[in-house]
Amino acid sequence: MARLMMRNMDDNQSGTISAVKVSGELGRRIRDMGLVPGTDIRVQGRAPLYDPVALRVRGFTLTLRNNEAEHIEVEVC
Amino acid sequence: MEATIALGGNPNSGKTTLFNELTGARQHVGNYPGVTVEKKEGIYIQNEYHMRIVDLPGTYSLTAYSVEEVVARDFLVNEKPEVIINIVDASNLERNLYLTLQFLERGIPMCVALNMIDVAKSRGIKIDEKRLSKLLGVPVIPIIARNGYGKHDLMLAAADLSVEKKQMTPLQISYGDDLDRTFIEMEKEIRANDFLTGTYPARWTALKYMENDELILSKGQKQNSEVAAKLENMVKNVSVHLQETVDTYPEAMIADYRYGYISSIIKQGIIRKKGDEQNRLYTSDKIDRVLTNRFMGPLIMLLVLLVLYQFVFTYSEVPVGWVESFFGWLGHLASENLADGLLRSLVVSGIIDGVGGVLGFAPLIMFMFFGISLLEDSGYLARVAFMLDRIFMIFGLHGSSVMAYIISGGIAGGCAVPGVMATRTLRSPRERLATLLTAPFMNCGAKLPIFALLIAAFFSESKGTLMFFFTLISWGGALIVAKFLRLTVIRGAPTPFVMELPPYRLPTFKGLVIHTWERTWQYVKKAGTVILGISIIIWAMMTFPTLPDSKVQDFERKQEALRGAAPSAIVLEFESADKGAELSAEAQKLKERLKVIHSKKAETALRYSIAGRIGTALEKITQFAGFDWRTNIALLGGFAAKEVVVSTLGTAYSLGEVDPEESESLSETLANSPAWSPLVAFSLIIFIMFYAPCFATVVCIVKEAGTWKWGVFSMGFNTLLAFTLATLIFQAGSLLGY
Ligand SMILES: Nc1nc2c(ncn2[C@@H]2O[C@H](COP(=O)(O)OP(=O)(O)O)[C@@H](O)[C@H]2O)c(=O)[nH]1
Ligand SMILES: [Mg+2]
């Protein structure tokens, strides 16, 4: 068990969100899409230029920029 | 029975597809007042039902962050629909229910349309809709929007709800002890003071205060600042408390509990699925392995964009040709039947040419929207944004900006009118504005003949190389200006990219056709009104004041003199010959001489007109960029449409009307003119690349940006920018001795 920022996760790595450390519009959007603590996610891959990152969460695919993923803390196995 | 029914749901949940299925052709597209979000309304008629259906913009939530959310919320408040149909994607239930909960908390009669059950089924997902209905307390009807399955049951349920007219009790979710306690206090305060209770349920207002919703906060301030301050204070207290004890914000807590509530519903056997959902590879993921692959992805994307471009500009040539020949024929007809004079000039050059030129875009727009809708509805557009975002982000834009750039002429030869309209797919407001203001810098098809003319006259390098070079300049310019705008007038943090990559889906042909038709029709209506008006104004500027009689008589006398000097047989031959008939050498010579005088007259008249005077007056300034009055007039004419630059230059150089496609004579004249040099030509090319967009584009910018201010801005700012660049080039070049 280790905690790391989503930005630093490898492709195909899975984990559980432990905290979303941002408020305001960005925080709201992240949470609205279902990225709240306790949610299982898996990094699906990254764009050709390594940013943005694509996630599998709650059965759908979500993309966000690396600097947005920076605010999400994930517990990985 | 009659009722208003709103369709609400997440983007890509199938709202528009259901809307089309329900209303067919009985629909109307407009805008919500003051914003550029589309408002689609239609009528559903079945037996005794006659219901007004409104397609709300797709949203994930009901906060006040995006225009779409605000519009959807305002609609519910202001127009009070009898029923909301909440479309929910069955293959993506959890996230979709997040919005459903917010509708329920709002307390408007609602039924859930459980859409895409075909997709869910193919993924091995089965949903127990009866149990879901019981848990949510509203009807849940499974449908397949694509083929209309279940739509009548759905409307039956909606009709029942609107007949009952029963007041829904807003859903109350527990948000944890701390928040719940505060909510109770807040509600008490709200009820005691009738604070906003005319519009919102008390708990909803409390919730929005807790979520820090700016719109509601400012409404509250206006209604009763004392109560508002009290409520804000309660929120602050609990917020401090939460941060100290659990290190979180109330709004985060609210989202947590909502998702928790959803989980608790789903856990009660709502979803049955085969296999491991989280790690399962859907067909869509397999396609993405190729289409967004690090190496193949960009290549395929390039190919797709090239094909889109080809499709828009090559295949539309035939219908564009029809429109052009129709207006050509109409112009001819008018010329034949109207006496030479102002009326004829107005009808032919002002009305027919103006509207014809603009309607000529209609097929382009049609093809463009068809192509883009195909990419958007299939889900590919989201992948393009995903792959290119890293680059566009640097310039304060969004991955989807690429579409508008390419269509505007990012691949030389596009058109800014459909390009500006293509920014509609962008959901980030600031990025969208920066894109639509810079897209006109691309080299559209109408700028190309001017470049070709100048290249032929002044540059020996191959046309292909130079054109490529100019394309690079316009991309560079557009991106840099976009960055500049994002740092100044459209300043603001980047809109979060957080976006769904929807599964690949086959769009419906009906949807594509309806979509394409609506957009094209909107444009045509504009062309028929605003654009006709501007076209007439420009015509008047280039026509009035007309030459004084004495001047006209001068030219007539000269022509008479020529005729008098020629042998009468020749004059007779010349006058009685049919158009295009072979003339004897003598008669041909007479004809040319007469034409020279005629062209000289046209030049004098042009210079005498308002446009001519403006052009002449501007010479004092434009000389710094190397432009004389002739160029100035041509550039003024270019505001009507860029291809007019070439024909106006022709008139200004006494060559008569010059066909932009066959401009050898003009190119020769320019090459030999002492006022011109390669440096002037280069300066002019840069100016034309960057100066005010043609008015058809300006009209579209105004429409897409939602206010005329951005239209005025694009004319003023672009011209200033272009002039600065051209002057720098001309002055530096002159100093270096070019
Ligand atoms: N398989 C399937 N596809 C659907 C269904 N409803 C909509 N779609 C497709 O989903 C995509 C998005 O639909 P659209 O109506 O544009 O969604 P909107 O963003 O909510 O308006 C389109 O390609 C539709 O053809 C459905 O019930 N089944
Ligand atoms: Mg839609």
Brief descriptors of the model:
heterodimer; A: 77 residues; alpha+beta; SH3 type barrels; six-stranded antiparallel β-sheet; 2 helices; B: 738 residues; alpha/beta; Rossmann fold; Helix Hairpins; 5 domains; seven-stranded mixed β-sheet; two-stranded antiparallel ribbon; binds guanosine-5'-diphosphate; binds magnesium ion; iron (chain A); transition metal ion binding (chain A); Fe(2+) transport protein A domain-containing protein (chain A); FeoA (chain A); FeoA_core_dom (chain A)
Mean pLDDT of chain A: 93
Strand residues, percent of chain A: 35-45%
- Overall pLDDT of chain B, averaged? 90
What's the total helix number of chain A? 2
> The CATH topology of chain A is what?
SH3 type barrels
N- to C-terminal distance of chain B = 79 Å
InterPro entries (chain A): Fe-transptr_FeoA-like (IPR007167), FeoA (IPR052713), FeoA_core_dom (IPR038157), Transcriptional_repressor_C (IPR008988)
Protein name (chain A): Fe(2+) transport protein A domain-containing protein
Keywords (chain A): Iron
Pfam families (chain A): FeoA
Structural commentary:
The complex is a heterodimer of chains A (77) and B (738). Chain A is α+β, with helices and mostly antiparallel strands and 77 residues long. Chain A contains two helices and six strands. Chain A has one domain: Ferrous iron transport protein A (FeoA) (SH3 type barrels). In chain A, strands 1-6-2-3-4-5 form a six-stranded antiparallel β-sheet. Chain A is globular and about 30 Å long. The model of chain A has no long low-confidence stretch (mean pLDDT 93). Chain B folds into five domains: 163 residues, Rossmann fold (3-Layer(aba) Sandwich), CATH 3.40.50.300; 97 residues, Orthogonal Bundle (Helix Hairpins), CATH 1.10.287; 173 residues, no CATH class; 164 residues, no CATH class; 56 residues, no CATH class. In chain B, 64% of the residues lie in helices and 7% in strands. Chain B contains 33 helices and ten strands. In chain B, helix 3 links the parallel strand 5 and strand 6. In chain B, helix 15 runs antiparallel to helix 23 and helix 25 crosses helix 26. Chains A and B meet through strand 2, helix 1, strand 3 and strand 5 of A and helix 3, helix 11, helix 12, helix 17 and strand 10 of B. The structure holds guanosine-5'-diphosphate and magnesium ion. Guanosine-5'-diphosphate binds next to helix 1 and helix 4 of chain B. Chain A: Keywords: Iron. Chain A: GO terms for molecular function: transition metal ion binding. Chain A: Pfam families: FeoA (PF04023). Chain A: This is Fe(2+) transport protein A domain-containing protein.
